[in-house]
Please model this.
Amino acid sequence: MSHTHKPGDSGGERHAAPMVEEVTDFEVLEIAVRELAIERGLFTAEDHRRFTEWTESVGPAAGSRLVAKAWTDPAFKARVMEDAVKACKEIGIDWAEPTGFGTPSDYMNLRVLEDTPTLHHVIVCTLCSCYPRPLLGMSPEWYRTTNYRRRLVRWPRQVLAEFGLVVPPEVEVRVEDSNQKCRFMVLPVRPEGTENWTEEQLAEIVTRDCMIGVALPRPGRTADVHPVQKASRPVQGAAHSGEATHEREE
Amino acid sequence: MYVRGVVGTIAACTYQDIIPEDEAFNRDGRLEQYYIVRFGQKDLWPEYPFENDTVQTESPERWLEPAD
Model:
């Protein structure tokens, strides 16, 4: 009685047309697991909503504060390098209780990678997209793409150049692949021109991309912007679009 | 993975934890030391053009052998 349906195959069974855009298998799986967990009392729908809203609202501010404090307080920096998870409590982040809902982070091993003038770190998770969420919030979309994850280990300088970061050849580029339970964050070199700045001023220029390692902090740079460089003479300009499509249809 | 068979140096001892093979199958498992291991990019990729670049990955002890 069972048979596979191919597109266009009407077979013997009726297909209801979906009312929404295509849903992926993983979305279906998530819904099924979540509904089952709620039915079995593992958590409530309200718990889930609050947790989801928390994950969506957390950003990299705690990481920025950690870097700014490490730059201004050498004793704090030493504590960060000695035991980063413990030092995080000083800036208000508890890896054992990151959400406030009593769900600990599975991964309690944070390592901060200190850049020097001759060593630049950049972080990737080639296996999936592991990220120090209690400190940096949700990872950016590009960090999770196979494009980034496959290419950064093999072609780090090319990938960094695509972000606008060109590292001089004498500086060591060290890729950190977080493929077990350690989570990593970059402590960049404090840039020139920030002497006598307050921690707040310093935190403003430590953006998420700086703590992943695809950007360098500098005065005036307070946001991660990835500009699209439009071609000056694109293949399909507005004046030629009719001809272009006609050719493709042939 | 991409560092199989390559000689590296131990950069750090991280923690002791259950080995991945046991954790994946939800067995009560053996604890092992985990290490961060550093490799020269020139040792991994043919004609990698920069002398000093490195990559670090983390590994349980069972995936490592002493280099001689």
Observations:
- The two ends of chain B are 21 Å apart (CA to CA).
- Residues 38 and 49 of chain B are 18 Å apart (CA to CA).
